[in-house]
Design a protein that fits this description.
12 helices; alpha/beta; 6-stranded parallel beta sheet; single chain; globular
């Protein structure tokens, strides 16, 4: 316990994480700086769809933006994200499947277009881990805290490998595994619960660290002992939204979760 907590002051974010017996991390936007690649790929795919199928309401024809990414797409599976955004803009397309050729004629085609664009960006531009996240991963490993990574993206393992963070995790549950196991996407908690199960961690003693609204809601629904929201956006609006959706606390960088007890 920190000196502040022992004197009766409110515990800091680092104090609260220090009591967790295990930690489950989301990947995009939490461990790796890859959310920007996802957002750019979604924007190109959705904007092409809006041009091909312009909504009746002129206001709904506006280009895909950052707020749309955070509200409708971030943290969700590709099909769920594509369906959610297109429904919000009242673009009625057949559902299709992820095996549809990339394009704009079905929800699956739009999701497949996004996937192709993201893969191209990942191969050409690469991805890095956030420095604050790396510091926290090192300290937790030194303490022997079990860690798992969970993501709706089927690229999670590749992202972790390319960023040099894969060795920190005892288990990785990605989109491919979620599909194989029939796990529903966030805000259902199943992805995080499966990750915790694989590291033998009771949810009530496990922390979830997540940057999406759907993800923090999933952590809350799963009964996790601590749900940390990560807000890397300017201003306080998104931070407030994370707290409203179920985060126990919100930080702008994972270095805020470092304290004497987490630094070894």
């Amino acid at each position: 316990m920190s000196a502040e907590a022992s004197m009766g002051q409110a515990p800091t974010p680092a104090d609260r994480l220090a009591h967790a017996a295990a930690v489950v991390f989301d990947t995009d936007g939490v461990i790796t700086d890859s959310a920007r690649l996802h957002a750019a790929a979604w924007k190109e795919a959705f904007d092409a769809c809006l041009r091909a199928h312009p909504p009746a309401d002129p206001q709904a024809r506006r280009p895909f933006g950052q707020d749309d990414y955070l509200r409708y797409v971030d943290g969700r599976t590709r099909m769920d994200g594509a369906a959610s955004f297109l429904a919000a803009r009242k673009v009625a397309l057949p559902l299709g499947t992820l095996d549809d050729p990339p394009g704009t004629d079905t929800v699956g085609a739009v999701a497949a277009h996004k996937e192709r664009l993201f893969t191209e960006r990942l191969r050409t531009r690469g991805v890095d881990a956030y420095p604050g996240t790396l510091r926290l991963l090192r300290r937790l490993r030194e303490r022997g805290v079990p860690m798992a990574a969970a993501s709706a993206s089927r690229h999670a393992g590749e992202l972790l490998d390319r960023s040099g963070t894969l060795p920190y995790f005892t288990a990785v549950v990605d989109g491919t595994e979620a599909t194989r196991l029939g796990l529903p996407g966030k805000p259902a908690p199943d992805l995080f619960l499966e990750a915790a199960r694989r590291i033998h961690a009771p949810p009530g003693r496990t922390a979830v660290i997540e940057d999406s609204l759907a993800g923090v809601e999933a952590g809350r629904r799963g009964g996790f002992g601590l749900v940390v929201g990560v807000d890397r956006t300017p201003g306080t609006t998104y931070r407030d939204a994370l707290l409203e959706r179920g985060a126990d606390l919100a930080v702008t960088d994972l270095s805020e979760l470092l304290t004497d007890s987490t630094e070894g």
